[in-house]
Structures are given as structure tokens and as C-alpha cells.
Amino acid sequence: MKDYLIGTIQRTFEVGLEQAECLYSELLQCTRKKNLITVFRITDRPEGVTQELDQTILTALFKSQHLSPSEQLSLALTWNRVDIARSEIFVYGQEWPPGALDEAMMQALEHDRTDFVKLLLENGVSMKKFLSIPRLEELYNTKQGPTNTLGYILRDVRPHIPRGYIYTLHDIGLVINKLMGGAYRASYTRRKFRIIYAKVMKRSPHVHRNSASFIRYYGNTNLTLSLLAETLPTTKETALFDYPFNELLTWAVLTKRQEMALLMWQHGEEALAKALVACKLYKAMANEAAEDDLETEIYEELRNYGKEQDDDQTQQLLTCELQNWSGQTCLSLAVTANHRALLAHPCSQIILADLWMGGLRTRKNTNLKVILGLLCPLYVLKLDFKSKEELQLMPQTEEEHLIGLEEENESLDERPLDARNTDPDAEVRMFPVT
User: Fold this and answer.
1) Which residue ranges have biased composition labelled Basic and acidic residues (predicted)?
2) Phi-psi label, residue 6: left if phi above 0, alpha if psi -120 to 50, beta otherwise
3) Among 56, 54, 101, which residue's Cα sits nearest to residue 74?
4) Does this model's pTM top 0.85?
């Protein structure tokens, strides 16, 4: 058998007897650890098998290096092989140490690995527990991923940015306000968030607390941090977000991660509002860049879906106030984004018709009945009006909304002092009296 193998080596590799014997000795040494041997046939593979060489190498590394599951996942993520991670790493019964999948999620987001983010979500990673203020800020400051124009837009709201400037979430809020325009105010620029931000940074001094951007916004002394932080109790939840997918969608849009933005749109709440905000941001960034080459059609799938499901629920969806989006409604966001297609949608037209008709029940020949009522006042008795419950569900104009707020404020003024809301985080809004 030895002579046969040596002869085969000579014929196959076209080497002399001495070199063939050396190769034979090396083969014998390799066979002593059969568990480390992986056979990969490049030309002779069964039909339908699409195993690639890099998959074979990566699987062999898993076997030979005795890597932990976390190290295996990091290696698969670096090689961008989600198929190997799905088949070799996320197996039934696999236990993960605390925080291991969170680190993998952070790496996947930074490197724009959409498939890995989807895989980690499928395997139990909670974005609400994962996304914190420091992590979101780190994502905005990462150098990984596609080239984007965030830095150029930031210079419009923060002139004279020094080299090595680290973006704060307040800076990002100013960028969002600039791109959204109008009365939109990002949550990152509100007083309540600033208090939480200061609290988190005081507890996490390693998170660029002494950076130029942080000092410029909060000052160079610990006194400012202490005064802001004392107004908020110390809880772990203060560093988290109620709607993490909304925050990550905004991050993905601003950093030009289109596939990631689409994934974040598919998860979480307020899908239509997220789509409209994303579209407005894309359009504004396209105008900033003077070239409209960005995707602005994310919301298209929802346009007809909601209408087909339930007209009443769709109308409420378009007109309900979204606290997480600066108190805007989907309809006002559509106006801000100048989405004529959505505004021309039958549901939007029904809402506008309801506002125009007021308490009248809109049925056939309503306009004709109104004209007859003007000509003959007695005919008004034949007009149908909506019930009190239906009127409460109707959308309001801005003037009606302001009148309602004034009445609410008057009722609060009449209440005893100890029964009023004394929340220190509450914001005071002033409306002009006309």
C-alpha cells in the first residue's frame, strides 16, 4: 500500500521519489488527527450542492480552534456568512452568555449586515433592551458602513466643527429639525430628553464625556451635569427608548443604509408614520445633495393596504396624534413631505370632506341638500347629522384643536393646586391668542 501511494503521488504531482516520500510522511502525520480533516472536492460535487470554499474553511476553523459560540458568531459576521451562522451557530439548545448577542447586534448594525440583524431578531434579541442612548450615539459616530452626507448637513447647524468632533444626539436632533422643517421638533432637542441624556452621561464617564461636542452643549463642569441629573431618578430604563425601531430607522436613513431602513420600517409600531418621516428625510437630503437618487417609495405598500382593510381605522390612523413624532399626525407628515399621491388617496379625501361637511352625514346628493336648505330653511330638518359618538371620532382642524386646548387649560386652572400635574419633566407650550 505504501509503494502504491508513493507511486500515485509521483504521477499526480509529477515529483521525484524523494519528494513523494516526504509528502507521504506528511500525509501520515495529518491522518493522526482525523477530526481536523475536511475534504472539499472542487470539481466533483453532487448536483444541487452549492457549498463554497470559504464556507468549508470557516467550518474547519470552528472545529480546529475550539471557538466559543460568541467568537464563532463574530467570525461569521466578519465573513458576512449568515447561512453558516444559521446552520452551524444558532443550533437548538445553544446557550448564550448575557450580552453576547447584544454585542453581535451592535457589530451587525455598524457593518450594515442586514441579514444578521434579521437573524438576531429572530433569535430573541430585544431591541428595546438593546438600544440605549450611548449605543445609538455610537452608531451615529461609527466610521463603518456606506459613505453618507450626515457630516455635511451637520455643518449647516453646527458651523466651525473641529476635527475629531463627536456627534451628540442633540446635534442629530438639530439635523432632523432642519430636514423635517416646519414646526417639527425632534425628541433629542426636548428638555425631558436632555435631562435623561445628562443623567446617562454622568453615570457613563467613558462615553466621550469630555469630547468637544459634549462640553459645548453641557459645559465643562460637573455642576451642570449634577443639576440636570438630580431631577431624574436613577433607573436602568432611563437610557432606553420606548420605540427603538423608530430611532434606528432615522439613524439608517441619515447614514444612507437603505436596506437597514427598510428592515427597521418592517418592525415596530407606526409603520405609516415611519415611512412618511423617512421619505421626507430622503427628499430633504436629496435636495441638500442636489441629486434625487435616494429611495423615497418605502410607504407605497401601505397606501392601499390600509384602505382595503378598514376605512374607519385608516382614517383614525391618518389623524391620530403621534407623540413620538413631535405630536404630528400622518396626514400632517404627508403634507410636510409633499406626498401628493397619499394626499390624493381616497381615505385622505374622505377626511378632508368630513372636515368640510362638519356634522353633516355625507351621503348621496349632500351638496344639493345643502343648497335646498339655504333656499328653503325648513328643508334643513331633512338633513342627516352625525351622532355625538361619531362627532368625537372626527378629525379636528387646527383652530378647533387650539380651542380645545384653551378649554382644557381653563379647566386645569379651576382645579385645586395640589391636584394639578407637577411633573418637572413636563414641557410648557404657549399658543398665540388670536
Assistant:
1) 412-428
2) alpha
3) 101
4) no
